[in-house]
Every structure is written in C-alpha cells, then in structure tokens.
C-alpha cells in the first residue's frame, strides 16, 4: 500500500495563497476605500475639489449625497454627486503650504 499524503499538507499551499492575497490585495483596498469615504463625507464649504472627470472647483453647498461647486472664472455652478469627487484640498492645507 502506498501512503496517502496528509490532507492538511495538500491544502497548505492554497491556504497560504489566500492569506497572502488578503494581506497584499484585499486589506489595502479596504483601507483605501475607508479613506476615500471619510474624505467624501468630510467635504466642507470653501474646499477646493477635483472631480473624477478632472473638473476643479470650490464647494458652495454640501448636501447629503451631492455638492454644488463653482468652477472657473465665469462662476459656472455644477451639481456633483459626492461619489464623483476624487480629491479634496481644503483651505487649511493651502495655508500650511505657504
């Protein structure tokens, strides 16, 4: 009779791959998603924002799920959903750079 390999030893490489994928792919993505959600929920009036389409503007009004922003020198007002904001640059961070 030939010896059969231990069942646990045969699944060990697969278990190790799942653990590696969790720490290298899934966990960092969840952390990044939490940061983005926090950034979008903390948008305030007078913050400078950039949309996912590349439009830059200043926040005039913040509602639950959208913002009203003013873009360009012609004072164009846009209603933008919060999920469409890619980055926020508040006035405080601008003053710290100076």
Automatic annotation (TrEMBL):
Q: Where are the transmembrane segments?
A: 6-25
Q: What is its main location?
A: membrane
Cell location: Cell membrane
Task: Please report the record's description of how this protein sits within the membrane.
Answer: Single-pass membrane protein
Q: Which keywords belong to this entry?
A: Cell membrane, Membrane, Protein transport, Translocation, Transmembrane, Transmembrane helix, Transport
Tell me the domain of life.
Bacteria
- Family that this chain belongs to: Belongs to the YajC family.
- Its recorded name reads Preprotein translocase subunit YajC
Taxonomically, what lineage is the organism? Answer: Bacteria, Bacillati, Bacillota, Tissierellia, Tissierellales
Tell me what gene encodes this. yajC
